[in-house]
Structure formats: structure tokens, C-alpha cells
Amino acid sequence: MAAQPAQGHAPARHITRKVLVLMLLLSTLLVGAHLALVALSEQFVTVRGDMKPADVMIVLGGDGPSRAFKARELWHRGLAHSVIVSGDGDCDYIRDTLVEGGVPAGVVTTECLSGSTRENARFSTPLLAAAQARSAILVTSWFHTRRAIATFAAACPSITFTAIPSEPPTTLFETAFGHYGPAIAKEYAKLALYRLQDASQDPWPDGGRPEWCEEGRE
User: Fold this and answer.
1) Can you tell me the distance from the alpha carbon of 141 to that of 202, in angstroms, rounded to the nearest whole number?
2) Is residue 208 part of a domain?
3) Which tens digits make up the pLDDT trace of 192-218?
4) Would the pTM of this model clear 0.70, i.e. be above it?
5) Beta bridge partners of 135
6) How many domains does the chain have?
7) Is residue 1 part of a domain?
8) Domain that holds residue 104
9) Strands 108-111 and 135-139, how do they pair?
């Protein structure tokens, strides 16, 4: 009697192919979702203000080079006469970049303790009040602008805040798969958390809001 071909490994090979197909499908869906989040960041997490002068320009730390260069550009356009650099980590770098680029050292104030957007707003507010600012330009990354504006406006309602951000890379692929990609994806969650939690909380629970920032102040 002729020997029958072995069939023992066929089911295992079939299962392996199914797993590979599912993994490929899942990877494709994840990449597609990531690209969609990046492509839609302009619509959902970004706000842009007009190129109008303001009393103060606030440069937020976190992406030092691009934000510093954008702030330097805006200074030379005459959009503000004083600058606050806010945020730990790259605070000194941003200040030095501004000064090396022609911004007078005497108009740059640093706040190098804040480690979050909420702290950026709280720690910068006394400086804004001391300057009696009525308007301020926020310089941050484009995908951070919506949350930054909301946070600063809650901290000091009497000041009009405008965002003029640093710009994304030139291609969607470079933006999505460079160092900005993960930060953009996380920003959706951070913005959602702000709307669900932070927006309902008093940014000054200890009652420390400067009088200058009281809502409705003339």
C-alpha cells in the first residue's frame, strides 16, 4: 500500500497565515488611523490668530528650536515689544536663541519652573499682570494651540490671547512619522481630558488669581 502524505503541519500553517493576515490588517488600520489624526490636526487641535501686534509674546517650552525661531521672526515683524519664555527644560535655550537672533536681552523674561500647560499659564500670569498686558501672542507648536489658548484664557480672562504657532514639516509623511507624530496623537487625548476635567476646574483653587486677570475688568 502506498504511503499517505503527512498532513500534521497543514492546520498549523493555515493558522499562521491567518495570524499574519490579521496582523497586517491591524497594522494597516493603525497606520491609517495615525495618518488621519495627523492630517486632521489642523482642523481639530489647531487654532491660528491673525498677525496682529500684542502687548506681550509668550513662548512656551517643549519644542525649543522651532518655537524660538518662530518667536524671533515675530519679534522682527514688530508684533510684540516684550517676551516671556515659559517652561522648564529648554527655557534658557529659547532665551539664548532669541537674544542671539537680535532680540534685546532686556525685553526677555524667563519663567523656567512650569512643567505643564496649566503651569505655563499660572506661572506666566503674574508676569502678564505686572506688565498690565491686555493682549498676548502664544507661540507654541501648531497642534498645541487650541489647548494652550483655552488654558491661558481660563487663567486670565481679562487678556486676549492669540496663537501664532510654529509650523509643521512640509509633508504629511514627515510630520506623521517624525518626532511630531506621537505628540500629535497624544494631543487629542490631552485636549479631551482638558475638556472633560480641567475646563471645569478653577485654575486658581487657592484664590491666587491676580486682580488684573479678573474677568470683566475694564
Assistant:
1) 25
2) no
3) 988 887 666 777 777 778 888 876 555
4) yes
5) 160
6) 1
7) no
8) 48-203
9) unpaired
